[in-house]
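User: Some background: our group keeps a shared notebook of sequences we're curious about, and every so often someone picks one and asks for a predicted structure to add to the entry. Today it's my turn. The entry only has the sequence so far, pasted here. Could you supply the structure so I can complete it?
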Amino acid sequence: MRKYADSGPFAVHNLFARVLFMGLLCMFFFEWILLTDAAIAIQFSGVVVDSKGHPINKATVRLQGTSFSVLTDPAGIFRINIDKVVSSKYITAWKDGCYNGGQSVLAEGTKYSIILNSIHKGDKRKYAWIPSLYESLTDGKAEIKPCQQCHAELTEQWKNSTHGSSAVNPLFLAFFSGTDINGKKSSGPGYKVDFQNSNGNCSTCHVPAMALNNPFNSDPREARGVEREGVFCDLCHKIDEAGIDSSGGYPGTLSLRFNRPAEGHQLFYGQYDDVFPGDDSYHPLYKESRYCAPCHHGKFWNVLMYSEFEEWAQSAYAAKNVHCQDCLCPLMASRLALLLKRKEALSADRRQSHHMFLTVSETGL
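Assistant: Of course. Here's the predicted structure to add to the notebook entry:
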């Protein structure tokens, strides 16, 4: 029978059946795609207001952990249309000068009303810093929880970084004191050898928590408690503005503006506008090289000693809008896996910047 099926009138009917079958298959396939898309075409809508109920214009509204975001209109109204399934727990909002706000994702058709609370400006000098590590707790207050408690992985990365050891680095302390790393007098250079009656401004970068109150006369060897954590979590996430001192002489804390909250309040700045719930607020500065400049651009006696920021500013990276953080604090779920050749147990929907602040040798730059 096979002998005749592919010849004569049998061949015509066989070809027609094949064409018909393929046509129907394609039709059903495209119809399935359309129906599937229609099934997951969802709109999230609502309004963003301040604490007094006034609408907020141009607030960024986002499905947490995704790229689905819009700006509110002058009436504070937003509409986010998505075309794929997401697992966001919250729909969030942010506006400059406000804490991140949000509301739990509810049933389809819910009209959301997100309240944004204003951040009270004005640095409170009596603020008690939150230590990064349990070992830095000194006052025994039960209500003080170190960053390590909730952010163990990020804290461990920071602890092993040069920022985490800036105040206790043996080479730094030896150079400051004019000794070897064991504390014995050395024939080498030392700040205290040349300036016995001055402590200089070294601490403004290396021991910033100490230098905030006494920038020109803080002895790093006398650091205690959280001061010994150097450039630590809470301090970095309280920076509200960073200046670029072209003349030199104003390094570190002398070119930084902090926003430490009043007692009973809390605030953490960062690079994400959808961190919620919590006392967090997105700050664009945290994605800019300018954030690094106060400690990585310094002149002494008109000699450029710390040139990293200036080198970046004159490089092709600056022209391409590639900032320091893009290479030295890569996203753990992507670039870091390639750099360190190990997998990270993080969802691609919520990637975090690495807190080890990779060096040139580690990034391959």
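Suggested note for the entry: The chain is about 25% helix and 15% strand. The two ends are 71 Å apart (CA to CA).
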